[in-house]
Amino acid sequence: MTPPPDGASNELDPLERQVVGIFVDGVRVLGLPRSIGEIYGLLFVSRAPLSLDDLVLRLKISKGSASQGLRLLKSLGAVREADGNGNGERRTYYEPAVELKRLVGGFIREQVRPHLESGKTKIRHLSETAGAVEDPDQRKFLCDRVDRLEQWMRSGGRVLPLLQKILGQ
Amino acid sequence: MTPPPDGASNELDPLERQVVGIFVDGVRVLGLPRSIGEIYGLLFVSRAPLSLDDLVLRLKISKGSASQGLRLLKSLGAVREADGNGNGERRTYYEPAVELKRLVGGFIREQVRPHLESGKTKIRHLSETAGAVEDPDQRKFLCDRVDRLEQWMRSGGRVLPLLQKILGQ
DNA sequence: GGGTTTGTTCAAATTGAATTGAACAATCCA
DNA sequence: TGGATTGTTCAATTCAATTTGAACAAACCC
């Protein structure tokens, strides 16, 4: 019943746990580590911005995880430093970006585009290899398949901007 | 120089390795295991349909992996049994589905929709929990966030059919 | 029935990615 | 300068997902 030794609140309440759970599942679908979901989820249900130490304390994760998690989330544009954090406050506090457009945009930019690009490069290579095959029938078959791959990539490239547009309401 | 003990061809040639590599990377982005990429990739570059044993032999994966991999690929509609496989042939042979529309459709149906659905359910729960919060300010804040989550889900639901349409050429 | 070929299942081993934690910067304050 | 606070880095550990392999089922043939 007594609050924890320090004044800091501790232990997630049931509602917070629910939200964190939803985001943990959510990020797994996107192929991101669970800690990312925990951190973003807790920020998402918290009225006030949280510091790195808040995250460590409340989620019971290591400082290392929290630091790396925040870095990734910042790179995705999913989290920002809360400005105007008090007068002589040294610590930095974080708050979530909650506009879907921004989240999707960051994810596409950081996690999807790079893969698409490297894929295109590999397919260009492949295209050369396939063109150099001796047997004409076999070559025709392979070039056909490679063309298809190129088509897929182009489709992917065309879909992304559209996605961003649609998800921006 | 001599062919392998049995008549079966063995060891991927460089071109096959390139293609398999591309698909291994591809499926990792989608959160699927590497063996799935290997299997689909090899089917994709192979002119003739392949049997489970072909896959085991050429990719050097276990029969277990090959069997489970084919099962998943079939469930995604990414692979089908080649019909008319010879007269008294018992073994079944597989060939890849190469229409992007079909691949995307299967992936959405099997891997995306289920998560979306379970997400929606959890959010409905959450909505109730949030509505029951005492403090009116806190409640208002939480309901706002939950609303946002619901919006996200709806956006997701709206995007999927669109994706399918666009990727069907 | 026995024997062979084809494919599935699942507990155990493997592997690769995420997490930890301790050492290290950097900044501030007295 | 020394000590306190905040945050980062990275090698070692932990953990979860994938893969293996051996036992099992099913279909076929003699």
Walk me through this protein's architecture:
Two copies of one chain form a homodimer. Chain A is mainly α and 169 residues long. Chain A folds into two domains: 14-96, Winged helix-like DNA-binding domain superfamily/Winged helix DNA-binding domain (Arc Repressor Mutant, subunit A, Orthogonal Bundle); 100-167. Chain A is built from six helices and three strands. Chain A has a three-stranded antiparallel beta sheet. In chain A, helix 1 (14-29) packs across helix 2 (34-45), helix 3 (52-59) crosses helix 4 and helix 5 (100-131) packs antiparallel against helix 6 (136-167). The longest helix of chain A is centred in the C-terminal third of the chain and has 32 residues, at 100-131. The A-B interface holds A 14-15, 18-19, 21-22, 25-26, 29, 31, 44-45, 47, 98, 100, 112, 115, 118-119, 122-123, 125-126, 129-130, 133, 138, 141-142, 145, 148-149, 151-152, 155, 158-159, 162-163, 166-167 and B 14-15, 18-19, 21-22, 25-26, 29, 31, 44-45, 47, 98, 100, 112, 115, 118-119, 122-123, 125-126, 129-130, 133, 138, 141-142, 145, 148-149, 151-152, 155, 158-159, 162-163, 166-167. The structure holds a DNA duplex (30 and 30 nucleotides).
